Amino acid sequence: MKCISVLPRLGAIAAGMLLAATAAAQNKPAAPAAAPAAASASAPAIAEQADRLIREMSAYIGSANEFTFHADVTFDHVLSSGQKLQFSSAEDVVLQRPGRLYVEWNGDLGARQFWYDGKTVTLYDPAMPFYASEAAPPELDTMLAQLLPKLNFVPPLADLLYHDPYKTVRGNIEYGFDLGQADVNGRSCRALAFVAKDIDWQIWIENGPQPTPCKLVITYKNQPSQPQFTAVFSNWNFAPRIAEPVFTPELPPGTEKIPFATVTAAK
């Protein structure tokens, strides 16, 4: 599945795998932003409530100095015959601003590990005797923005890792609306739906003082059989105890360095 248009990196797993009170106070996300001013007549038609909730979620996540979360993912792969197959994966994310990230995912189509330490990015497939590593800028947003055009790779759900997730998705939305209250694995959430040129997507955002994503569904409506990508989030932690070595690649002795394209294509 190829990365496209709005939220392109949120669906990239299919391409990649087929892919302490003081500390807590310092890392506490900012309070949700106030509702935006009324949109101009030429702006996309997005319900005020839907736009406000996306802004609040973005501000909350983006203001955090560090966080961790888990996501259970399912995604479709369409065969040349038109048959649609579904695969699953689990993803764990550890983020520490301004320039550290670790992503690990395991699933039906294999596993990957991704490290970023503010100087280099490293991608490793545990099933293969090789890895890829390249120099990277010292700031997380810049690193993420350069991954796809330069290395043809990006971690799954990367749009949520930017300092301003709202900015990465808002410009591509054609219209959106509020679907009301919903329950996701016992979490009280607000369901929103958005339409873009190439995809439709829904997101469920938790009610209350921590507006984090509960669930995400992307439909690639312009691709044959309209495959979907779904992520169900859990274990959001904005005051995690992160061990320093987690951002340092752990590679078996003798592992060979190769170009990024080879690792991302490996199964």
Major sheet: arrangement of strands: 1-8-9-10-11-12-2-3-4-5-6-7-13
Fourth CATH level, the homologous superfamily = Lipoprotein localisation LolA/LolB/LppX
> Mean pLDDT, as a whole number?
85
Q: Which structural class fits the helix and strand makeup? A: alpha+beta
What's the CATH class, please?
Answer: Mainly Beta
Distance between the termini: 14 Å
The count of DSSP E runs of length 2 or more, i.e. the number of strands, is 13
Question: Can you write the helix and strand succession as a string?
Answer: HHEHEEEEEEHHEEEEEEH
Helical content (DSSP H or I, runs of 4+): 10-25%
Shape call: globular
Number of helices: 6
In what range is the share of β-strand residues? 35-45%
Count of discrete structural domains: 1
Per the CATH scheme, the topology name is: outer membrane lipoprotein receptor (LolB), chain A
Biggest β-sheet strands, sense, barrel: 13 strands, mixed
Low-confidence blocks of residues: 1-28, 32-41
From the alpha-carbon coordinates, what is the Rg to the nearest angstrom? Answer: 18 Å
